[in-house]
Amino acid sequence: MKRLAVFASGEGSNFEAIAGACAEGRIAAEVVLVVCDRPAARVVARAAAHGIETFAFDPKGYASKADYEREIVALLDSRQVDLVCLAGYMRLLSDVMLDSYEGRIINIHPSLLPAFKGAHAIEQALEYGVKIYGVTIHYVDRTMDGGRIISQQAFPYEGHDMAELEAMVHALEHELYINTINKLIAESRI
Ligand code: GAR
């Protein structure tokens, strides 16, 4: 059984999809740790409901990003984490995390990268009037939403309803994250 950590900052619907799939045996892995940089975020309560250990911290309580990332790396090491899944974790990682875990950290992003990087991808794509939307999962490097792409899925949408589009993107994200973790396991890439 592979051991996963999920990093999130907010709602945690991707966390929920991954943890649920693990619990139901649809992924041959276990979520052993959740890391969250906003202690009041919904994902913290979701992790508690699953009984999953959570490191919820306030970055303002640390002198630097390197300081809290050293704590995170120590936790990942001691829990023998095989794969770190960023799922709406809205912070760039520093050398501390990447020096230890590069190649074992993946991220999900709600656009067809390299288009629409950043925190407002769905909104920007809708404003732009794109006709094909999508979701990307990629390895994480030192850049925002950069790194080699592992999987992508697209769908056509010509409506103008942000809530409807968001729901479609999130449903696709959940499916793609589960399939991508399974693919990495099946190909012995973790
Ligand atoms: C997801 O749509 C994810 O792709 C996005 O944040 C959302 C988190 O939702 N990430 C990014 O935009 C990264 N640049 P969730 O908390 O419900 O999983």
Distance between the termini: 11 Å
Helix content: 25-40%
Strand content: 15-25%
**Helix-strand pattern, N to C?**
EHEHEHEHEHEEH
Count the strands? 7
Please compute the radius of gyration using only Cα atoms: 16 Å
Mean pLDDT: 98
Largest sheet: 7 strands, mixed
Poorly predicted runs of 5 or more residues = none
- Helix-and-strand structural type: alpha/beta
Q: Give the spatial strand order of the biggest sheet.
A: 3-2-1-4-5-6-7
Which ligands occur here? glycinamide ribonucleotide
Key structural traits:
190 residues, alpha/beta
General description of the model:
With 190 residues, the chain is α/β, with parallel strands linked by helices. Helix content is 38%, strand content 23%. It is built from 6 helices and 7 strands, in the order E-H-E-H-E-H-E-H-E-H-E-E-H. The chain has helices at 13-23, 42-49, 65-78, 95-101, 121-128, 162-186; strands spanning 2-8, 29-36, 54-56, 83-86, 105-109, 132-139, 149-156. It has a 7-stranded mixed sheet with strand order 3-2-1-4-5-6-7. The mean pLDDT is 98. Glycinamide ribonucleotide is lined by residues 8, 10-14, 87-88, 108-110, 119, 121, 145, 173.
